[in-house]
Amino acid sequence: MSGSTRIVVIPLKKLIIMICIIAALIILAAIFIFGGSSSDAAKSTGVNISTSTDTVKKNTSCPTYSPGVYTSSILLNGTPIDIQVTVDSDNINNIEMINLSESVQTMYPMLNSSFDEIKTAVINNGSTDNITYNAGSKYTATMLLSAIDSALAKARN
Q1: How far apart are CA 134 and CA 113, in angstroms?
Q2: Per-residue b/e over 88-118, b at no fewer than 16 CB within 10 Å?
Q3: Cα separation of 114 and 111, whole Å?
Q4: Which residues are bridge partners to 72 per DSSP?
Q5: Are 58 and 90 in contact (CB under 8 A)?
Q6: What dihedral angle (degrees, nearest 10) is formed by the CA atoms of 62, 64, 68, 73?
């Protein structure tokens, strides 16, 4: 009998180790996907952002900028988005998201609202220092603040 059937023997110890590793990876993936701070107290720790749209406050403690328009880029799913910051010598006048495609807006529906809150806070504060944000949008806020700070670093004298 010269059959082509082969029998694979896996030692029990290796089989148990492989099952444990796979189970640990599944648990970690579930924690990453469904985890986070799900308590109401953790979600409510966050922002007291002023949303007034009156004139830009002059902040004498903020750094002096070279007037102009400065840009910083971020990647979301391989799609570049430009953060454009307009400053004069003492103030941050405007912050905009440029090249924001509809596909990115669809995939990240909270991006615009997070950006608007952070934009208002940065313009009112005069810098990215001590900006608070909602715990539910922690990663988005951190990414946007980093991009804004990068553009402001280009503007500083």
Answers
A1: 11
A2: eebbbeebebeebeeebeeebeebeebbebb
A3: 5
A4: 83
A5: yes
A6: -60
* pLDDT tens sequence across 33-48: 887 554 443 343 343 3
CB count within 10 Å of CB 134 equals 18
DSSP per residue, 5-40:
-------HHHHHHHHHHHHHHHHHHHHHHH-S--SH
The span from the CA of 76 to the CA of 104, in Å, is 7
pLDDT digits (tens, 9 = 90+) for 116-128: 999 999 999 888 8
Max distance between CA atoms of the chain, in angstroms, equals 92
Calculate what percentage of the chain has a pLDDT beyond 70: 80
At 108, list the tokens. Answer: 């990240």
User: With contact defined as beta carbons under 8 Å apart, do 47 and 57 qualify?
Assistant: no
Phi, psi of 98 (to 5 degrees): -110, 150
Start-to-end CA distance of the chain, whole Å, equals 85
Alpha-carbon distance of 131 to 140, in angstroms, equals 13
Return the axis-axis angle of helices 111-125 and 138-155, rounded to nearest 10°.
40
